[in-house]
Design a protein that fits this description.
The protein is of the alpha+beta class. It contains five helices and 13 strands.
Length: 330
């Protein structure tokens, strides 16, 4: 019986030991992915901010500017693209809506972002765009890969329609989580005018005909959970200007929008709570289960070897020598 039990234990030890690397290096890359139906909304604020008054064409300080960002998974498009490219794909229809202190629209920029559900690498497909302009992304946007590394990444900037490095600046603690801090600076760059202008009757084509151009610069900051790759906080020092043309007397320049944009406190709290729950699932596949299976395999191996050693140990005493009590007469 000991011999049979030891063989069973040795077999289980081999199974769980082999399962440990399979869970980490085979199951995790296939099971960890962004769901195609994910929906996320986020509110950011700049307090105070500078806005352009289109009535006077002069910049003025306002108490606050609100930015609402939404990411909505387009399941039908994701399935269509997935069939075409042969891998799991997520399609996010994103919208960045900027409102002034009176609630009126300042700008509205829609995006369609197509990426690999596992690696977050961009997938190029029909419909990929920013504000109606076709784009071909390189690098990440909105989310880092699972198990983010301590290195620079290429990050796509929707205003310039180009990618630039976003630099790893160190490890920090944010709301009890160990996070990686990344920072990207976009120098002053001429960018397209939004398709929707804040004043009725003014179109981007009319502004361009008057020779006025739009320029933009920003420094964006992200605090990223390295396990899930999800930002738990984001800030941006944002600047926009209109330059030259007939709209600006003397061909000068005027600030269209400027402010230090920060995530609203309640959205920071909810994001940290959501990411904390998601990181447990990722750690289950990358750490808890692999190391647990390895430890279990080692324990079973030790128990199996111990039983095997006991089963092979020679017995002592009368029973072991084959003797016994023999009865007989004189």
């Amino acid at each position: 019986m000991r011999r049979t039990a030891s063989l069973v234990l040795l077999g289980l030890a081999a199974f769980f030991t082999a399962l440990s690397p399979l869970m980490r290096w085979y199951a995790f890359p296939r099971l960890a992915k962004i769901p195609p139906s994910q929906y996320q909304a986020m509110v950011l604020e700049a307090r105070p901010a500078t806005l352009l008054d289109y009535g006077t064409m002069k910049a003025r300080q306002v108490p606050e500017v609100t930015i609402v960002q939404t990411l909505k998974g387009n399941v039908d498009e994701a399935h269509r693209v997935a069939r075409a490219v042969g891998r799991d794909v997520v399609v996010w229809d994103a919208l960045s809506y900027v409102a002034g202190p009176d609630g009126k629209m300042v700008s509205e920029i829609p995006e369609r972002y197509v990426f690999d559900a596992h690696s977050q690498e961009p997938v190029h497909a029909a419909g990929e765009m920013v504000d109606g302009d076709p784009v071909r992304r390189s690098g990440i946007e909105y989310k880092w890969p699972f198990l983010t590394e301590k290195r620079d990444y290429a990050y796509f900037d929707p205003q310039t329609r180009t990618s630039a490095p976003i630099h790893y600046k160190g490890t920090r603690t944010f709301h009890g989580l160990e996070v990686y801090y990344f920072e990207q600076t976009i120098p002053w760059t001429r960018v397209p005018l939004p398709k929707k202008m804040p004043v009725k009757g003014i179109t981007p084509q009319a502004v361009e005909k008057m020779g006025t151009t739009r320029w933009y610069s920003t420094t964006r900051m992200f605090w990223v959970d390295p396990v899930t790759g999800a930002p738990v906080n984001g800030e941006e020092i944002h600047k926009e200007e209109l330059r030259g043309g007939q709209l600006l007397p003397g061909g000068g320049k005027v600030t269209a929008f400027a402010g230090h944009v920060k995530m609203r406190a309640d959205y920071v709290d909810s994001t940290v709570a959501l990411v904390s729950a998601q990181r447990t699932l990722v750690l289950l596949l990358t750490s808890y289960l692999p190391w647990g299976f390895l430890a279990l395999g080692a324990a079973l191996l030790a128990a199996g070897l111990l039983l095997e050693a006991r089963a092979r140990r020679p017995r002592t005493g009368p029973a072991a020598s084959g003797g016994g009590i023999v009865s007989g007469g004189p």
